[in-house]
Amino acid sequence: MLQDSDNVSSVQKNKISKRKEQQPTYRTTLIEWACFEEIPLKLTKPLKLRVRYSNGRNVIRSDVFNIFSFDPDLKKAILDLEYQFFILWEADVLEDKKRLTSGGIQLRNLLKEYAEEENVFSLL
User: Fold this and answer.
1) Are 67 and 84 within 8 A, CB to CB?
2) Staple 70 to which of 25, 57, 95, 96, CB 3.0 to 4.6 Å?
């Protein structure tokens, strides 16, 4: 539309075009499981992640749990996000419920809605 407008100079059109090219592209991906410190977690429902590449880094974000990670290597960024998910699990699901705040209990319930501990012996 801007290219057809007589009110926009060619310099402004060029700046707008360059800004659009620099905008990060978002895509979504899903993680299915994470395993840390011998506690395998399996997602019971898909966890949507926003992934964008910006300034030479992959930026991954979970809006549900408000966690993010970034790294030039996509696999490392995903592993870091999985680790953050596990830290939330450890802090709010494995912790004694009596020690949690009301926000911690809400987060615990949300975590349990999305994941469960996988019985490794059932996989053998």
Assistant:
1) yes
2) 57
Residues 12, 5: contact at Cβ < 8 Å? no
Q: Can you tell me the distance from the alpha carbon of 16 to that of 24, in angstroms, rounded to the nearest whole number? A: 15
Q: Is the dihedral of CA 78, 84, 89, 92 positive or negative?
A: negative
Measuring CA to CA, which residue among 22, 87, 89 is closest to residue 56? Answer: 22
Three-state secondary structure readout of 10-75? HHHHHHHHHHHHHCCCEEEEEEEEEEECCEEEEEEEEEEEEEEEECCEEEEEECCCCEEEEECCHH
pLDDT tens digits for range 46-77? 888 888 988 999 999 999 999 999 999 988 99
pLDDT beyond 90 at 88: yes
pTM for the whole structure: 0.68
- 89, 67 Cβ separation under 8 angstroms: no
